[in-house]
Amino acid sequence: MDQTVGIGVTGGIAAYKIADLVSRLKKIDLEIVVLMTEAATRFITPLTFKTLTGREVITDLWSDPREYRVKHIGLAEQLDLLVIAPATANFIAKMAHGIADDVLSTLVVANTAPVLVVPSMNTRMYENPIVKRNLAILAECGYHVMDPASGLLAFGTIGKGKLPDVADIYGEIMRLLNPSI
Ligand SMILES: Cc1cc2nc3c(=O)[nH]c(=O)nc-3n(C[C@H](O)[C@H](O)[C@H](O)COP(=O)(O)O)c2cc1C
To answer: Which residue, judged by its Cα, is nearest atom 17 of ligand 1?
Structure first.
């Protein structure tokens, strides 16, 4: 397939499920680059993704200043698809307003490839009108926003906001990479 997919992991409780997604994507012929926010590294370690992808995980905007091409620009030129999963309420707000204050949000601003956003948060956060408005802004800008699933959430509550099944996210990625299928 020879395509490059950026997986941006942000700091939600569902971050651990993205290890399964990355593992499935690595089984087909895709180049996977994982980027994590600082908060995401509290939920799952970069080492997990480094082991699964065989590549350094990008967590820092400022490392390797000797590189000729700064990371976020060099990577933006290579990507066929950027996936933000899980996408926190905070990160969705940053995306909706063009905030570029860490390596992942800076890549989002530099990126021109299709973007898949997979929100995941507590129902109370998901129902917040500002979160809904920010998601609508992303959809208006042409980002593909997945609908969260309903069910039992972390901390024992039931409602909408759950990360969709990894198989469904995988299916959406395949559809975006192969629009003719
Ligand atoms: C235990 C715990 C679980 C959290 N889960 C979520 C979540 O599922 N979704 C969400 O939007 N925020 C969640 N948060 C809040 C985010 O971690 C927080 O807003 C953080 O600033 C997000 O940073 P980031 O968007 O840069 O990754 C959680 C926080 C804690 C302490």
So the answer is: 11
Neighbour count for residue 48 (Cβ, 10 Å): 17
Q: What is the best residue among 88, 97, 122 to mutate for testing ligand 1's pocket, by most ligand atoms within 8 Å of CB?
A: 88
125 lines ligand 1 (CB under 6 A): yes
> The pTM is what?
0.95
Please name the residue that has the structure tokens 């180049």: 31
Index of the ligand 1 atom closest to the CA of residue 91: 25
Is residue 1 very low, low, confident or very high in pLDDT (cuts 50, 70, 90)? low
Residue nearest to atom 11 of ligand 1 (CA): 88
Q: How many domains does the chain have?
A: 1
Domain containing residue 84: 3-177
pLDDT digits (tens, 9 = 90+) for 79-110: 999 999 999 999 999 999 999 999 999 999 99
Give, in order, the Cα–Cα distances in Å from 101 to each of 37, 38, 146, 157, 168: 10, 11, 24, 32, 30
- Ligand 1 centroid, distance to 2 Cα (angstroms): 33
Looking up residue 120, the CATH number of its domain turns out to be 3.40.50.1950
In this structure, of 63-72, 137-146, 149-158, 172-181, the range with the lowest mean pLDDT score is 63-72
Longest Cα–Cα distance in the chain: 49
